[in-house]
Design brief:
ten-stranded mixed β-sheet, 498 residues, 12 strands
Length: 498
Amino acid sequence: MRAFVLALVEYSQYLVITYFLVLNSSYLMLIALAGRTIPHFARRRHVAGREDAAVSPFTRPVSIVASAYNEEATIVESVRAMLGLRYPVHEVVIVDDGSKDATFDRLREAFGLVEADRVPPGELPVREGAASVHVSTRSGSLVVIRKRNSGRADSLNLGIDMARHPLICMVDADSLLDSDALLIISQPFANDPLSVVAAGGVIRPVNDSVVRYGHVLEPRIPKRWLARIQVVEYLRAFLMGRTGWARMGGLLIISGAFGLYRRDILVEAGGLNPDTIGEDFELVVRVHRLMRDSGRPYKVAFIPEPVCWTEVPDTARVLARQRRRWHRGLYETLRQHRGMMRPRYGFVGLVALPYFVLFELIAPLVEILGLFIVAAGFAYGVISPGFAILFMLAAFGYAIVLSLLALLLDELGLHRYKRLSDLFAVAAATVVENLGYRQLTAVWRLQGWWAALRGGKPVWGEMTRSGFAATPQHTTPPLTTGTHAAVPEPQTSQSPVG
């Protein structure tokens, strides 16, 4: 055993350090690309024609589609917020995916729902069709579909099939959008209507922020450290990862909590795949494949400002289940589309997908292996303190610097958090993240990968949320969602979103 450990340490110690140096250097390149994009966007946002688009009859209509499962506590507030978004023409399509609580009753009471004789055109395959379709007598822009439970992907496909408008915005029923989010995220489609097929926006944790009537009045940093660290992850992921990848034409992930698509492309691609647990990631990869196979020019865009607010897990039990699920979805999608890693698929096939295999899929394995090597090397006296320090700097010190750069970029370009104490809290979380949190998430992600390799049936599990913070005049009741619940599906080695 001693000989094996010594050989492992000797041959792999510098390989592990090199891996982390290359990984973090790639993140530095992504944040450098983001550093060119975000300030440019911030300078132009006041002259981007948003006010004109808000009243123009030529602004393309949008259908907001959301799937709801046991959302009685907040569904009315969420739908009111969706209906109240500033946009010339938009409808809201809610698919009640067999809720066992009073989700539909709350909607019927609040919006005066009556059954309508509407039938989806059948352009997308669904496993469970509409049991009934209802429209609002108080808002002509609301459609509610009732059906038997068949999961989020199948429900969204039914909602997309029912949607009437050329652009589809998929959101989570318990997420909150900024009032101008649709205006901003639809800009790429207005600027280049023939080429842009999809666009994503920023997701931010809403835990402990001040929320009233479906609007985030004052963004705040969560009180619990577990949620604070996820603020760091989301900053790093969206401002560094997605902005950088979109600039290079290799964006592979648009969060299921907030993404805008051309409806005709969704129909042509066949909608979301209900057989994968990472359906949002898989959909974007499949859209890339569709466009490349057909030889059409296209763009998948990312806008760093339009914000969707979502509650992130604040308990280790829920977070562990979430990260296992995300990594399993990452593996399933990469395995399913492994045939795209060839020149025919351009930058996506030759760079983006291989990168996700090398630096996202296997990263938790290398991280755990690196810690084992350092511990074993110390135990057998074959690793010097100098090497241990070098490893910590390559793996963790570099990562802290990247997180601080992402925070600086956010503050200079977007300035979402107004209180100085919030900025100090996020900066502290960049350090705390490396003191056990990263290691735990690496273990959880390996567990998800292992579950996929064994071929076990994927299970969403119950996602329990504590509800949105509110002003003293308005208190939002706690929210508990069931097996259908979905938080944005981040998956990267150092951040939740690639």
